[in-house]
Amino acid sequence: MLAAAVVLSDISSAGDLSIAAEFFSSQESVVVETASGQPPAAAVRSQNGNLLGYAFSTRDVSGSVGYSGRPLDIITVVTPDGVIAGARIVAHEEPILVIGIPREALIAYVANFRGYDVRSGSGLRTSGPGSRPHAVAGATVTSTVIHDAILRSARAVLRTRMAASDARPRLDRETRQIMSWPELAAEGSVRRLLVSRGEAAQMLGTRELEPDKPFIDLWLALATPPPVGESLFGRRMYESQLAQIGPDDDLVAIAASGLYSFKGTTWRRSGVFDRIELVQGERTVALRTEMHTGLERFQAAAAPEFREIAVFRIPRSTGFESGEPFRLDLWLSADPHTPVTTAKVSLSYQVPGRYVVSRQTPQANEAKRPDASGISADLRQAPLWQEIWQRRAIEIGVLIVMLSGLAGILVFQNAASKYRPAYHALRTGYLVMTFVFLGLIANAQLSIVNVLTFIHALLSGFRWELFLLDPLVFILWGFVAMSLLFWGRGVFCGWLCPFGALQELINTIAQRLGIKQIAIPFGVHERLWMIKYVFFLVILAVSLNSIMAAFGLAEVEPFKTAITMKFMRDWHFVAYAAALLFVGLFIERFYCRYLCPLGAALAIPARMRMFEWLKRYRECGAECHVCARQCTAQAIHPLGAINPNECVYCLKCQANYFDPATCLHLKKRAERRRGYDTAPVTVAGTAAPGGNPNVR
Q: CA torsion angle for 517, 522, 523, 527 (degrees, to 10)?
């Protein structure tokens, strides 16, 4: 969403790092030096020169942008130990945080990152309750963007400063790339040791009847670099493993197939994998159970199937240097249960040079600078929207099932509405699902704000990744855009709007309780239509001059109050939403009919729809007005024509169309058939008494 810049502090410049001193107010006076280096950060020192941390701007380090697509800037200090000493948001342009959500909630959310440990990414705190700050209610996506900006920027600053003070070869832990198994093997990221049964028998002094078959086919990989780890494990598993290690710890993957197991069985009792060990120079690293995670398969394209796969987390405290050569020693045994005779084989490994950076080439490990697009290369290589989509995979799956079901209802609308009781049960169930899941659980309520965001994005530089940050809203808009071409605005308004569903469900209950409905004369009703179109045009026009003023006018929508924030707002917002629902008890979908600017915005392009799906008889409007009286949105003219701009596609008229007990045309046809069936029969041209001599 787009909005005018909002400064949430008293500083004059969003990039002013001097406020970092305030994070240490309980200690002695501190000095914030001038920002330097790449990425730029300022050392924060005590008066006696002790280094307290590094202050930085997330905008300068990682080019952080908000859900609105505009700059998001957070001044943060990270200690040399990787703990956030303080954070303050100094500029953002997120309208959902400006309209409806208290400013204090956002400030408190960012400030609560104090004590957050960025080294492991697990969100462990050095002090204070909880594992990580809770997202701001009603602004989950923006909260995720803020968390990502702080975490990425702090890690980049911490790694580069640590690398600058250490001449040891270090790994590039920033660059991301997905690779296939053949590509990993070609560059040497995964290395192989194949021992045939004949070779094993020769080493162990035994006989083998099938010497050419593999005794063990062993593969080894240093999975710390993101291109290796993400390719082998998949992003989610890789991030899960990173969350369990420190910034200098490493991941080693071992996989094998064949007759022999590199794990054995004794490790479950002893806690040590006695058949394998890592060796680097004079140092030996024993692999223990607490370092181990088992995998079923690798995710890399074209990866072989393995009998067993293990991931080992290697702490830096073991002295293991991932940038230096090392080897894996494997002890072979003729009898796994009584290893009297053993032999050792080794697999040497060195991480490919492109993953190693040294003190002389620190730029290889620097955070990627933002380019003209405003998004850093690091963010482009590992888009935040992909992580959000993975986190919400279940909700996405449920939504896709819902939309697939709705598409089936719309395409086969005759079958869906042919049997009135089944139709009513189907529609009521779908509306309940829309309100509960899309509204209360997923917070996927579309809004006129989304329309303004899209229009302004087209005017100022469109970027898909900004809209992808909210997967459910993105998918919903895609489906609504398609449905506009085929069915008009009614698909969203009648089936997928949580607030619209709430209105209809409440009115249905009211009618069953006997609450008398108010019938608005069609002439008055027709003139009230234009109110929502005026609202939309005014909001759009104002947005061209002041987007913030437009978002203020967008509060004519009660969606945020009733759905997103679940009535947890100031009393006047709650009173407005409650008043609309109260009126809806007497006038079905009152808000949808007359006030909704989103409905008006959808109705305008919906005039280009390609098909007329709703069926009518010649008696409709001329002799029969049942559908007009029962129409959910009063979208049927007294003469029988359906106004597609106002129709919410509830299919109530189609249920009447197939109902012989309701439809006048079907009643007449049934009477004609009964008259035909009861007509007297004539024989040889002679009419029976009272019969027709022309009927034979």
A: 80
